Amino acid sequence: MRRGDEPEEPDELAQDRSTVEQTASRLRARAERRLGGTSPGGAPSTLAEAAQLLHELHVHRIELELQNEELRRAQAELEASRARYFDLYDLAPVGYLSLSEAGLIEEANLAAAALLSTPRAALLGQPFSRFLCDEDRALHYGCLRALRSTGAQQRCELRLAGGEGPPIWVLAEAAPAPQGPSGEARWRSVLIDITTRKHDEQALSDAQARLRLAADVAELTFAEWDPRRDQLMPSSSMREPPEPAMTLEGWGDRIHPEDRPRVIAAIRAFARSRVDTAELQYRVRHNADGYRWNLTRLETLGQPDGQLERVLLVHQDVTLRKQSEDRAVYMAQHDPLTGLPSRALLDQLAAHMIAGAERAGTQLAVLFFDLDRFKAVNDLLGHEAGDQLLQAVAQRLRTSFRAEDLVSRLGGDEFVVVMANIPDAEEAARAARQAIATLARPYDIDGQPLPCAASLGISLFPRDGRTLGTLMQRADLAMYQAKQMGSGRYQFVTEALNRKVETTARLEQQLRQAVADHELRLVYQPMVDIASGRVAGVEALLRWPQPRGTPIPPATFVPMAEAIHVIHEIGQWVVREAVRQQALWREARLPRIPISVNVSSHQLYHPRFLPELAALIRELDADPSALSMQVSEAALLESPSSAKRLLSGLKALGIALVMDDFGLGCSSLCQLEDFPLDGLAVNRVLFERLHTGSTMPAVMDVIVHLGQALKLPVTAVGIESQADLSFVRAHQCSLAQGDYLGAPMSGDEFVAWYGRYSGLPHSEFHAPH
Fold first, then answer.
1. What CA–CA distance (Å, rounded) separates 468 from 461?
2. Which tens digit of pLDDT belongs to each residue from 713-727?
3. Where are the beta strands (DSSP E) in 275-381?
4. Which of 88, 127, 453, 525 is most buried, most CB within 10 Å of its CB?
5. Neighbour tally for 151: CB within 10 Å
6. How high is the pLDDT of residue 290?
7. DSSP string computed for 134-158
């Protein structure tokens, strides 16, 4: 509508206006007749008639005034309505256009001008198609043709060029408008901005495309099952049309017979449950490849009232993943070198075999093999030859035993065979003799014959134990007894061996309890500076006292603590106790007494050894320079590079380091120089041949001179006589330690000992007792 086309006058207002005009016309005519008319004598009408006329005129005048007031009020309402109309038109949130028959813009509201990015005045006379994207003009012209031919409202989605910005999507609705003054056709058009909706639709389309691509890449297929009608609609993929509907049982025909009952039952149970999701893994028949593995995810598709409507099944072919998992499981359960079951699979399978033997009341044998002199093969011929030998041994063991027997490799040159359902011990002995003979035949390694024999121990279920761990432990001990008898022997577990194992197990349990209850104790043996005679420090020695009987020696319980993995906990306690004792000695007004503690290889190479020791020193606010740690030469040689790193870490904490039992190992001078040491300790065993005419004096000279060259003081441990003391003084050892100077004692006893010792002369002193 053009702005000049004002709204038409209401019918009621026009009728009132006409009535007023007619009444006024009648009164005017009547007044003219009466006032302008004359009597036959030319005299005017009677006064009564004139008065009557004036009264009527007065009444009609009042009526006219009232009607004029109504007209003015109606006119004001019409103007207000017209103003509201134009406000609604201009301020409408959608665009309004009036177009000529040729498609020229005759009128536009503010929203239309904003959509067309042009001032309203500049729009008039412009073709609407000028504001469209080139690709959409043909669609616009088509809508106009349809509008002309049918006269029915038309709608289409168009893109406006949008000035310098991106195109604006609009929904254009066009309808016929009243004809123009010359009878030409005119159109009204409404423009609704749908840009956001189109962007959302495009984003949804892109997401669906990505989903389709991901589904195809992941080889996903989908199906929906209606449990009420038992109707399943499968599809082969998102790109292909769905297959015909079928029942759940009919769909299940393609599932492997071993998996079918489980899968069908699980889907039906899922539909009855209130679980939102579930997963199933099973084998399904494939067109050309036989059966493949499927992973199906179940999802509930419910109604607004929460009732289950359908079950969505999302299938994924996981055959390659399943094969990879199976390979990983196989590798985890089998020795990579020989292909035999590893310890993990041995534990699992042997547990089933033992359970079966217990139910059937039959015997079972565990044979523990160890190759004789295998280390020499590795040392002389190399590890590759050693690996070839292990593979050949594994193959011979497979062929030596029955199909139902379990052959496995523990690691290194150790093998275990579990024989099920044997009638008696002789059957195990016969199998052992046959295996020893088979393994004793020379092996062809790189074209060269290589002899190799094996020793083995045998334990029987249930006589020697009821678990694989116990049976293997006792068979292992029996194997070592067989080795002591010579190469290529076997040995059954004996009653004496069983008693030894039981005693060891009992001691291990007692040791665990002793550690938990803090029953271990530290005793202290003084170390004396030979030149000055002063006390240079003490060595903290671990003791396990017994309520009844003699204490258990460290040589017995320390290896046991390492075997049951409590040595690290013990080591932490030793440091804590040593620091506590130093504080007590300070309270007793003793001078600073450095304490040396022993560190086993198990402690040293424990991954938490350094960080926990550092944390402990911080916690105790200890003086690390008042601590030293003794590590045996053998422990350092287990892994020289790791030992060097760990010793450097200890040095960084400020702790002094001493190589203990020096002279018993085979460390080279280069290794000795590499280690950040602060001293050497010579073991007592070097003094045992002192009076036998051996070369001991020369050896001691070499050790002391080596220490002097490396600026490392040498401590002589195990001084038990004046002769020992004179010997180490003559050979210029720096420190001396032994029962002759002071036996290991408690912290309180050391205070008393120190009080007696402190007044002795510096030379040719005699140790107090």
1. 9
2. 999 998 888 888 888
3. 277-286, 290-302, 308-317, 363-371
4. 525
5. 11
6. 86
7. GGGHHHHHHHHHHHHHH-S-EEEEE
pLDDT for 766: 46
Report the pLDDT value the prediction gives residue 43, as an integer from 0 to 100. Answer: 45
The tokens describing 526, both together, are: 């003084």
At residue 600, the 3 state secondary structure works out as coil
Q: List all residues 6 or more positions away from 372 whose beta carbon is below 8 Å from its beta carbon.
A: 452, 453, 454, 455, 483, 487, 488
State residue 419 phi and psi, 5-degree precision. -105, 120
> What's the CA gap between 590 and 75, in Å, rounded?
120
Give the sign of the dihedral formed by CA 653, CA 655, CA 661, CA 664: positive
C-alpha to C-alpha distances, 331 to 89, 338, 739, nearest whole angstrom? 79, 11, 56
- For residues 380 and 422, membership in a common domain is answered with yes
Which tens digits make up the pLDDT trace of 237-296? 545 555 788 999 999 999 999 999 999 999 999 988 878 889 999 999 987 668 999 999
Report the amino acid identity of residue 758. S
| Residues in Cβ contact with 730 at an 8 Å cutoff, skipping those fewer than 6 apart | none
Same domain, 434 and 570: no
| E-state strands within 347-467 | 363-371, 406-411, 414-422, 443-445, 448-450, 454-461
Quick one: pLDDT band at residue 467, thresholds 50, 70, 90? very high
Residue 205, domain member (yes or no): no
76 and 101 inside one domain: no
For 103, the domain range is 93-193
